[in-house]
């Protein structure tokens, strides 16, 4: 099927928009005969890159200023280092506001879309799979629970039909834009940690968006984060992968994080949570069992985010990560650490109990790097 230069999409208002999608080297299809599918996932290992996590810092200023990114281009140096260190995956958790006008869902900004194109091409150059994720979509972000009213989404994607059409408009645009890129290089991750609605409403929206994407690119690899931090058992017929999380228990991973509540007791590993439940490796294995079960039914699984905030003691952090990583390796699951550079990551994490090593202009947590390299 030949790639079209323009995609006609009918909006909720009944009008017609033409999306200009420039032809360029990103779309050479090549042979997909050995391409991966939703149930034949590689064991990806990599990181979340946050340049387009927010379109401007404002919304996070009263919560956690470190997450207030400025809609900058992704850094080729990150891809180069990730490749050099032996990793093969990046997830781009992005806000749709980075490429659309503030008060018009349907007006897209080509400058910022080309910056995402560039990240996809960095993936090609360095042999790194790129997962495109709407961390904030029209009508949903898990972070609305933290934001002041003026920064929250004004409508709900779970309840508002026009918002659903707007989200589909954006995913259709990316489907056209990247049609022809093999799944081995690129996948779509529809939402970040959907919750706050009913599973029935969630499943209806997922079905709608998957159908909209596959009208354009029938074989595109699509992943979801399950529903309410559990795998989605009712969507197996959609032929999609599912993404777990590695943030449990929060008493370890989010100790003293300003945007998290109830995690103020000094952590250890193993440790008891606020309900008196002992968390250790055995408990982690039980925690991940529903994801093993969904995998046994044909859905590929990987861990889309995990990490430990920099206020947790380093030795506790490493012990917790070691148990998780060994479980995922045994399960043959891939993973993406949150984040690469920053308070959860291997670089520039700002821990007071780490002796950092200078590495290409960054401050490296060598012990954490060596741990994740072994996984």
Topology overview:
Elements: E1 6-10, E2 16-20, E3 45-48, H1 76-84, E4 89-95, E5 100-101, E6 104-108, H2 110-126, E7 129-136, H3 161-177, E8 186-189, H4 199-216, E9 222-224, E10 241-246, H5 250-253, E11 271-272, E12 278-279, H6 281-287, H7 289-296, E13 301-306, H8 314-331, E14 334-337, E15 357-359, E16 362-364, H9 366-374
Parallel strand pairs: 3-4, 3-14, 4-7, 7-8, 8-9, 9-10, 10-13, 13-14
Antiparallel strand pairs: 1-2, 5-6, 11-12, 15-16
Structure in a nutshell:
This protein is of the alpha/beta class and 375 residues long. The protein contains nine helices and 16 strands. The protein has a single domain (6-24, 41-374), classed as Glycosidases (TIM Barrel, Alpha-Beta Barrel), CATH 3.20.20.80.
Class of secondary structure makeup: alpha/beta
Mean pLDDT: 91
Give the C-alpha Rg. 20 Å
Taken in chain order, the helices and strands follow as EEEHEEEHEHEHEEHEEHHEHEEEH
Helix content: 25-40%
CATH homology group: Glycosidases
Shape: globular
- The number of helical elements comes to 9
> Which spans of ≥5 residues are poorly predicted at pLDDT below 50?
1-33
- The CATH class label is Alpha Beta
Number of strands: 16
Terminal CA distance reads 40 Å
What CATH architecture would you give? Alpha-Beta Barrel
Beta-strand fraction estimate? 15-25%
């Amino acid at each position: 099927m030949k790639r079209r230069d323009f995609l006609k999409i009918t909006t909720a208002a009944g009008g017609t928009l033409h999306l200009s999608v420039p032809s360029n080297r990103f779309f050479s299809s090549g042979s997909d005969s050995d391409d991966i599918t939703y149930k034949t996932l590689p064991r990806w290992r990599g990181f979340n890159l946050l340049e387009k996590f927010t379109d401007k810092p404002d919304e996070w200023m009263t919560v956690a200023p470190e997450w207030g990114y400025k809609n900058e281009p992704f850094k080729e140096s990150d891809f180069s280092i990730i490749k050099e260190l032996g990793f093969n995956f990046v997830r781009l958790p992005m806000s749709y506001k980075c490429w659309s006008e503030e008060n018009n869902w349907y007006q897209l900004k080509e400058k910022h879309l080309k910056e995402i194109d560039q990240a996809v091409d960095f993936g090609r150059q360095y042999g790194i799979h790129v997962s495109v994720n709407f961390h904030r979509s029209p009508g949903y972000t898990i972070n609305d629970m933290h934001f002041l009213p003026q920064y929250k989404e004004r409508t709900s994607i779970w309840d508002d039909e026009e918002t659903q059409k707007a989200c589909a408009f954006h995913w259709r645009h990316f489907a056209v834009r990247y049609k022809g890129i093999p799944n081995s290089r690129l996948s779509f991750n529809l939402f970040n940690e959907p919750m706050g609605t009913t599973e029935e409403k969630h499943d209806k929206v997922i079905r709608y968006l998957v159908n909209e994407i596959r009208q354009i690119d029938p074989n595109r690899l699509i992943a979801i984060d399950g529903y309410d931090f559990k795998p989605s058992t009712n969507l197996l017929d959609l032929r999609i992968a599912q993404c777990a999380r590695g943030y449990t228990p929060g008493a370890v991973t989010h100790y003293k994080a300003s945007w998290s509540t109830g995690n103020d007791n000094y952590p250890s590993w193993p440790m008891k949570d606020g309900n008196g439940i002992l968390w250790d490796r055995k408990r982690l294995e039980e925690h991940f069992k529903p994801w093993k079960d969904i995998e046994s039914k044909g859905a590929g699984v990987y861990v889309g985010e995990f990490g430990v905030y920099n206020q947790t003691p380093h030795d506790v952090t490493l012990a917790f990560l070691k148990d998780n990583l060994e479980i995922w390796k045994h399960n043959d699951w891939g993973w993406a650490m949150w984040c690469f550079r920053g308070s959860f990551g291997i670089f520039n994490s700002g821990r007071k109990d780490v002796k950092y090593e200078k590495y290409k202009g960054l401050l490296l947590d060598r012990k954490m790097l060596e741990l994740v390299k072994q996984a």
